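Reply to dn_fold:

You asked what the input looked like. This is it:
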Amino acid sequence: MAFNRRKGAVDGGDYEGTGLQSFADLRLKQCRENEVIDSKYGFERISDQVREETGYLLNMHSTEILDDDKRLIGAIDYYFIKEDGARFKVALPYKPYFYILIKKVP
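and this is what came back:
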């Protein structure tokens, strides 16, 4: 079942009638919709790697972003507010997986 963090359950995995070819298309569409909603609230993503900003952390949540190879990867969106009231957000990619090796005790 697909899930949108802002809208709740989207569908049961049936993409007929939506114009979407796959689950990846649905995820990409949701990412773009989330960007539009965030920008309406004044949170523009900082994409310049060199620019430095200072602000207070307001919130954070998991998201997905496109990497250099145009693939969706896991990331964390960090939402900040500056002293003058301006807002911005930063997305930092991460690998949300970890592996556990279970050792059998004799």
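The radius of gyration is 17 Å.
Hope that clears it up.
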